Every structure is written in C-alpha cells, then in structure tokens.
Amino acid sequence: MNTLLPTSTAGSLPKPSWLAQPEKLWSPWKLHGQELIDGKRDALRVALMEQQLAGIDIVSDGEQTRQHFVTTFIEHLGGVDFEKRETVRIRDRYDASVPTVVGPVTREKPVFVEDAAFLRRQTKAPIKWALPGPMTMIDTLYDAHYKSREKLAWEFATILNQEARELEAAGIDIIQFDEPAFNVFFDEVNDWGIAALERAIEGLSCDTAVHICYGYGIKANTDWKKTLGSEWRQYEAIFPRLRESGIGMISLECQNSRVPMDLIELVRGKKVMVGAIDVASEIIESPAEVAKTLRNALRFVDADKLFPCTNCGMAPLPRHVARGKLEALTAGAEIVRRELAA
Ligand SMILES: [Zn+2]
After folding, report:
1. CA of 341 to the centre of ligand 1 (A)
2. The Cobalamin-independent methionine synthase MetE C-terminal/archaeal domain covers which part of the protein (predicted)?
3. Which domain holds residue 125?
C-alpha cells in the first residue's frame, strides 16, 4: 500500500432499491433467477463505483451479493438444515429463529469465490473481502450434531480456510473475518476463538483481518450499548491474546463509541482499522471530526499501521448518508495525511 492512511469500509453498503428494500437489514431480494444474478452483479459494480468516486483506497463488494453476513455463507454449506429452526439467543442479546446443524458441516462448493473474481476484474485497487468468523457463525445456529461450540467452530474454521485460500487465489488482498461475538464471549475467545481464526488463515500469504464491533445500529444493539457503562473495555479482555496471534489487522469501533482509545496500545504492532465513522447515526461526520478520531488513534498506532475505516457495515443506512460518510472518511484521512507530511 503506497498511500499513508489507506481508507476502507468495514463491509456492507446499502443495496439499491431495485435489488432489496432499502434501510432494512437482511431484506429479502426483489429479483429472482437470472435477474437476481445479474442484479447482484450490477449492484456490486455500483457499490464499487461509489467507493471509488468517494476516494476509498481499499474497496470491497459492499456485500451486495449477500443478504446476511453470516447466514448467506452458511446457506452454501452441507450439514445445516434451514427448514429445521430453533430459537436461540444471539450474542447474549436477542432471540432469533436459526437453522439447525444436523450432521457434519461441509463446504460442497465455493461460496463467494466467483463474486470475488468478478470484483477483481472490475478494478486494480486493493480489495478487502469479508467472511463471517467461526465464533460468530456458531452463535447464529442451533447445534444438534456436535454439541460443542468449540468443535463446531473448529469445523467452520477448516471450511473458512478452504474458502479463504480460493479468495486469495482469485486476487483478494485482505481477507477479513467478522467476529462481533468476540466482544461478548471473552473466555471462549481466549480459550479457542482466536485459535479457530488462526486455523482459518492457515497457509494464506495475503493480509488478514478481524473485525470486532458493537454491531449494526439496530435497536437490540443500541439497547445493549446502554448497559455497558461509561467505558467500554471489552477489547481489553482479548487484545493481549490477539496481539500474539497471526492475524495481521484488527478492525475496531472508535467513532462515538465509549471505547477508551488507549486500549489500542495493547495491540501495538498490529495494523489497526480505526472506525472513524459511526454507522448507528444518520448524521454525517465532518472531515474535522473524522480527523480528530484518527489523530487520537495515532497516539497508540504507528501512522504506517493506521487504516481509517467505518465502525461497522452501512447496509441499513440511506444511500445518500452512506455516500456522505464515505466522502467524510476520505476528507478526514486527507487532513491527517497532510498534517503527517508537514
Ligand atoms: Zn461490525
């Protein structure tokens, strides 16, 4: 990466209204069959162009081809019965009806590899691709087969590794694992969660990242945040082990969050994607606000390891708001770049 402070997003961007209901998470597709296949690819092109017009350095597919950041991946696997549903508590926070693991989980075919190759053909810019992390995957399922969270996570890590190797071969530069569950199950993260992630990145030579956030700006998450007190110290429990891990980059929620910035010192040496855009608010940050967050982070991250980013995905936001936030991120990063150069 030649640019200092290269910008990117945590992952999802709003979908066009002809593809899915806007401002709604996990909205069902509006198209079917070949129209849906074509529509997803058109949306991917639009998402790419919007990132590039806004000046984002490391681009993504905006998750235009998936409905849900975990479920869409699991839908492609064997051993999971989507008809057999159970209600479970997700991340200790809200109840959801989820599919059941009924036998050994297997990856019978590539999941996102064709989409990734398609994106690669559209641009020469560095590309980041997001996959769900093993711990977050098991937390979105009912397990009637392995009856062990650790065992199932390990199986998913093996499957994710197969997918990740093929994504790398398709030209992906950074593979990111989304692990919001890392902010909840600290003991498990340290016992086997980070080890499972390391299994998922085995043999990769591209950059690897883990995204650990406080979730989309939906009510269950904002209500949960209200219970976390004046300082959010969740990262503190897992950073020491994460620092020793083979994961290269860590994506964090820093804008309008109550995470004490000095916690980042605990992962000194890692590349840090600093969330400088709040995805739970429709208020577009000013470039000065973004710059302030980045400057604050620079006290604990070396400049060559700081990657300005969004707190989380922007799928539920109105499109014009998401576009405005991308532009603010670029402009804020540019302010700090100039200061560093001076
Ligand atoms: Zn997130």
Report:
1. 31
2. 5-330
3. 33-256
